[in-house]
Design goal:
alpha+beta; 6-stranded mixed sheet; 3-stranded antiparallel sheet; 32% helix; 16% strand
C-alpha cells in the first residue's frame, strides 16, 4: 500500500501553533521548564491529571464538588486549577488526590498544548479504543504528533501510566499506539458503513450509548479538533444526532463526506478547513453539555 505524502509545511505550521483552547495564556513562561522529550512530557501530564473513572485504582475518592473539574475545556483554566491544588512546578508529579480531575480529553489537551508550546506539530484525535472493554470500541481521545525523525504522525496516549497499563493489561506502546487498536473517528465510521465493523459496538460504557449516532458525534468532534477546537467528549452542537436517534439516508451521506475528509486530514486540509466554516459543523459560541444537560458558553472563541 502506498504511503501518504508527507504533510505540507503549511499543515505542519498550523498544528505547531497553539489554539485558543490549548494556549497556556498567563502560564506561558512555565513552558521553558518543561522537557522536550515526548516520553518525558507524557510523564509530566500523568503527574498532573487523574481520570475521574479510575480514581479508585489510585486510592482516591473524588469529592462531588471536584468532579466539576472534568468540565474544564481550556488548557489555561486546567493549569489554573492544577496550581491551586498544588503550587509546585508542573514538572513535579502531584499525589493522585492533588491532580486535576478529568477524562481522556484533559490528558490529550495538556499533551497537545505542551507539544505545540515546544513547536511540535500536534493535534487531538477523537475516536475509539479497542483495549478498554473486550469486544467493544470505547470512545476515547488521544494526542497525535508529527515525529520529524520517523516522518510520520504518531498516536500517543498520555492517560496510560503504569496503573492503567496494569489494570487493562495494555501490551502495545502507548507512545506509538497501533492504528488498529485505536480507530480515529473517520476510520471507525467508514468501517461500520462498509459493514466491516458493527456500529453497535462503538460508543461508551457509561449508559451503554452506542451506534451510528455516537459515531456521528465523534466525527464532528474530530473535525473540530483538526481545526484546533478541542472539545469535551460530551459537548454537542450542530447536526450531532440525539442519543439513539436513527439517521436518515441523507444524514448518513452527509456524515460520509465528513468521514472522508478526516480520514486523511493532511491531504484534505484545505477542504476540511473550508467544511468547518459550515455553521452546522462549526463549534458555536454555546454548546450543549450532555452530562450537565444544559447549554454552556465555550468561553473562548471557537
Amino acid at each position: 500500500m502506498p504511503q501518504p505524502a508527507n504533510p505540507s509545511q503549511k499543515v505542519l505550521n498550523f498544528y505547531a501553533a497553539p489554539s485558543a483552547m490549548t494556549d497556556f495564556g498567563p502560564h506561558t513562561r512555565i513552558v521553558q521548564d518543561l522537557p522536550n522529550d515526548v516520553a518525558e512530557l507524557v510523564r509530566v501530564v500523568q503527574g498532573l491529571a487523574l481520570h475521574e473513572y479510575m480514581a479508585d485504582a489510585y486510592g482516591v475518592t473524588i469529592p462531588e464538588a471536584r468532579k466539576e473539574e472534568s468540565h474544564i475545556r481550556a488548557v489555561r483554566e486546567m493549569v489554573d486549577r492544577i496550581l491551586v491544588l498544588d503550587g509546585d512546578p508542573l514538572t513535579i508529579a502531584r499525589p493522585p488526590d492533588k491532580r486535576l480531575v478529568g477524562v481522556c480529553q484533559h490528558f490529550s489537551s495538556l499533551m497537545v498544548a505542551m507539544l505545540r508550546a515546544k513547536g511540535v506539530p500536534a493535534r487531538a484525535r477523537y475516536g475509539f479504543g479497542s483495549y478498554f472493554n473486550p469486544g467493544y470500541y470505547e470512545e476515547h481521545t488521544v494526542a497525535e504528533y508529527w515525529n520529524a525523525g520517523d516522518k510520520r504522525w504518531l498516536l500517543v496516549d498520555p492517560q496510560f501510566d503504569d496503573v492503567w497499563q496494569t489494570k487493562l493489561q495494555i501490551k502495545h506502546d502507548v507512545l506509538d499506539v497501533p492504528r488498529d487498536r485505536y480507530l480515529v473517528a473517520g476510520k471507525a465510521w467508514t468501517q461500520c458503513r462498509r459493514g466491516d465493523a458493527d456500529a453497535s459496538r462503538f460508543g461508551i460504557f457509561v449508559g451503554e450509548m452506542r451506534g451510528f449516532w455516537m459515531l456521528a458525534g465523534e466525527l464532528l468532534r474530530d473535525l473540530a479538533a483538526l481545526n484546533k477546537v478541542e472539545m469535551l467528549p460530551w459537548d454537542t452542537w450542530g447536526t450531532m444526532p440525539k442519543p439513539n436517534e436513527p439517521l436518515s439516508a441523507e444524514e448518513l451521506s452527509a456524515f460520509d463526506k465528513v468521514a472522508a475528509l478526516i480520514r486523511s486530514p493532511d491531504e484534505s486540509f484545505d477542504q476540511l478547513r473550508k467544511a468547518y466554516e459550515n455553521d452546522e459543523l462549526r463549534v458555536p459560541a454555546t454548546v450543549f453539555n450532555a452530562m450537565r444537560q444544559r447549554p454552556e458558553p465555550v468561553g473562548i472563541g471557537a
